[in-house]
Write a structure and sequence with these properties.
Order of helices and strands: EEEHEHEEEEHHEHEHEEHEEEHHH
Structural class: alpha/beta
CATH topology: UDP-N-acetylmuramoyl-L-alanine:D-glutamate ligase
Number of domains: 1
CATH class: Alpha Beta
CATH architecture: 3-Layer(aba) Sandwich
Oligomer: single chain
Largest sheet: 9 strands, mixed
Length: about 350
């Protein structure tokens, strides 16, 4: 492992307009918005902010592209307020800043995202200059919602591959965040990236997409199928860990063959405001533990604790606390039943 300390996140920075509704209506339906909150969002934003919340002393930098508009001003201010080094949050007048209308259902805790691509369509590997940032782990996202990154970047299959190769050449360990896009699209974009990853932390649907395995059936997670998918994906690259999280828990496989199964925490229903950002919090907690030299099980336990803590806010990062506070919260709530 490189001696450098800290994280660099790259890719999606967008404005999240978080809206809590009683339930998600069908087409032509009508439902009242219960609350509205504007925050930074996207994988590069969420992971960076979560890492700073987990440990305010952890160096975190970011690379992204925003517009020369009020939303761009807002995101740069969010990065500055979180103590994120943001000299490479570049700006363009060629498109407005990406934004997402994120609807959280009070009834189910699930979320629905409607996004405007904006500046995300213009991001390319040329925006990533690894000589101007320092750190140990580079966390990149999101394939499927960045048009030029998704396209071929000769001689590489796409811009994600080119960026990961450049990060590794600069001495970074690499991690990739995925998006909820059609499974065949996820597989086409991400499989070429796997040989260039050190960490892969995704959800049950995403690991299934990469493995060609049906991991979600009738709205529930098939844990045995997730385990098969994790094993299949781990065979496709040099990852130190491949992990898949889902509402009931997480399954992970380390490079040396250690299979870990952890149930999720028994979060009181009254504490849940929304699931928006829980996956980012899980990734941030797990990556933090791995960065600090914890064993894989301890890192995953922090990941689930950070994810559980994040459920208390409608926004993606609003209720993530220090890693010590997250673990203390996990101890109070306890685990759900073991995974079968």
């Amino acid at each position: 492992m490189t001696a450098a300390r800290g994280f660099v996140t790259g890719g999606t920075w967008c404005v999240d307009r978080n809206k809590l509704v009683e339930y998600w209506p069908g087409e032509d339906g009508l439902v009242r918005i219960l609350s509205v909150e504007q925050k930074g969002g996207g994988s590069a934003c969420n992971c960076a902010v979560d890492l700073r919340r987990l440990d305010p002393a952890m160096p975190v930098a970011t690379i992204g592209l925003v517009g020369e508009d009020a939303d761009g001003d807002f995101l740069i201010a969010e990065a500055a307020a979180a103590g994120i080094e943001h000299a490479q949050m570049q700006r363009t007048a060629d498109a407005p800043t990406q934004y997402t209308d994120a609807f959280g259902s009070q009834r189910t805790g699930r979320r629905t995202h409607l996004y405007f691509e904006g500046t995300a369509a213009l991001l390319t590997p040329a925006h990533f200059d690894f000589t101007k940032v320092a750190g140990r782990i580079f966390h990149l996202g999101l394939p499927g919602i960045n048009a030029r990154m998704d396209a071929p970047w000769p001689p590489h299959a796409n811009g994600w591959v080119a960026t990961l190769i450049a990060a590794r050449a600069a001495g970074f360990l690499t991690s990739l965040e995925l998006a909820s896009i059609p499974p065949e699209r996820n597989a086409a974009l991400v499989r070429p990236c796997l040989p260039h990853l050190d960490f892969l932390i995704v959800n049950d649907s995403e690991i299934g997409a990469l493995a060609g395995e049906a991991t979600v059936r009738d709205g529930g997670t098939d844990v045995a199928a997730v385990e098969r998918a994790v094993r299949a994906v781990a065979a496709l690259g040099p990852m130190q860990i491949v992990a898949a999280h889902f509402p009931r828990g997480a399954v992970a496989l380390t490079r040396d063959g250690w299979l870990i199964r952890q149930p999720s925490l028994a979060v009181p229903a009254a504490a849940i405001a929304g699931a928006n950002g829980a996956g980012d919090a899980f990734a941030a907690g797990t990556l933090y533990g791995l960065h600090e030299g914890w064993d894989a099980a301890a890192a995953l336990a922090l990941g689930r604790a950070a994810a559980a803590a994040s459920l208390r806010s409608v926004s993606t990062t609003g209720s993530v606390e220090s890693w010590q506070a997250c673990l203390a919260l996990a101890a109070r709530w306890g685990e759900r039943a073991a995974l079968d």
